[in-house]
């Protein structure tokens, strides 16, 4: 390639090098996007569900996140796309928190983040950096029942029990928020927690009893 007297390539035009770098980055991005799309659209017969998940997962970079979960500080390397619910259930074996709808409709996945109740299926785990998470496993010392758990047992606040961890986490929050003063108020502020067994009257009784007990929750 011809050079100028100053040693620079004669053919290099100012800005052209930057243009080329931009095109290269764009080409790489498109290649990676196409690969991810192709994997996602691959027919079930071509890739088994597990393989597909693994191949997609490999395309995402992991990030480090620090969370305090049930009193224990954890540093975790996770994919940015993972929800708090999946992190708890699939990576930390905290399966007390349930997956019902996975769309923020049923409340089965309710946990406390910095003391506030949230639907963990709607929260990305990486967004919880530095926060304190409490799940149903962490509301009382091992071997002891939290007053809300005891009240649910006493008042038969469940049948199949699938919604119960979420109901209990919401019930505790409902009292802390000052939203458990009447049956109607409890029903309104517990309305995000669905019970397909219809244990609602007994759930309200359990929450009323804990509220009347005046314990520090
Ligand atoms: S699983 Fe989260 S609201 Fe239903
Ligand atoms: S106890 Fe069965 S869904 Fe609530």
Describe the structure.
- By secondary structure, the protein is of the alpha+beta class.
- Among the domains are: 76 residues, Roll (Ubiquitin-like (UB roll)), CATH 3.10.20.30; 67 residues, Orthogonal Bundle (DNA polymerase, domain 1), CATH 1.10.150.
- Strands 2-1-5-3-4 form a 5-stranded mixed β-sheet, covered by helices on one side.
- Helix 4 crosses helix 7 and helix 5 crosses helix 7.
- The protein starts with 15 loop residues before the first helix and ends with a helix.
- The site of one FE2/S2 (inorganic) cluster (FES) has 12 residues, from loops.
Highlighted features:
five-stranded mixed sheet; 217 residues; binds FE2/S2 (inorganic) cluster; single chain; elongated; disordered N terminus; DNA polymerase, domain 1; Ubiquitin-like (UB roll)
Order of helices and strands: HHEEHEEEHHHH
Strand arrangement across the biggest beta sheet: 2-1-5-3-4
Bound molecules: FE2/S2 (inorganic) cluster
Determine the CATH topology of one domain.
Answer: Ubiquitin-like (UB roll)
Instruction: Estimate the strand proportion.
Output: 5-15%
- In CATH, the architecture of one domain is Roll
Find the count of extended strands (DSSP E, 2+ residues): 5
Calculate the terminal CA-CA distance, rounded to whole Å: 77 Å
The major β-sheet equals:
5 strands, mixed
CATH class wording of one domain: Alpha Beta
Q: Nearest-angstrom radius of gyration?
A: 26 Å
* Overall spatial form: elongated
CATH level-four homologous superfamily name of one domain: Beta-grasp domain
Helix content: 25-40%
The number of helical segments is: 7
Mean pLDDT: 87
- The helix/strand class is alpha+beta
Low-confidence stretches: 1-8
């Amino acid at each position: 390639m011809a050079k100028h007297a100053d040693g620079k390539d004669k053919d290099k035009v100012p800005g052209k090098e930057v243009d080329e770098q931009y095109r290269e980055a764009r080409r790489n991005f498109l290649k990676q996007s196409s690969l991810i799309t192709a994997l996602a659209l691959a027919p079930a017969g071509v890739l088994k569900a597990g393989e597909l998940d693994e191949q997609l997962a490999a395309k995402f970079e992991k990030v480090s996140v620090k969370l305090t979960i049930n009193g224990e500080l954890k540093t975790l390397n996770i994919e940015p796309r993972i929800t708090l619910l999946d992190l708890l259930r699939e990576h930390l074996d905290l399966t007390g928190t349930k997956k019902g709808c996975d769309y923020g409709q049923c409340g089965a996945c309710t946990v406390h983040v910095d003391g506030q109740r949230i639907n963990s299926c709607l929260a990305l785990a990486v967004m919880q950096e530095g926060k304190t998470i409490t799940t149903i496993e962490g509301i009382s010392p091992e071997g002891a029942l939290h007053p809300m758990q005891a009240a649910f047992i006493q008042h038969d606040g469940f049948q199949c029990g699938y919604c119960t961890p979420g109901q209990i986490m919401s019930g505790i929050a409902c009292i802390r928020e000052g939203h458990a003063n009447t049956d109607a108020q409890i029903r309104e502020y517990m309305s995000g927690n669905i019970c397909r067994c219809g244990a609602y009257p007994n759930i309200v009784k359990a929450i009323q009893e804990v509220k009347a007990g005046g314990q520090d929750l």
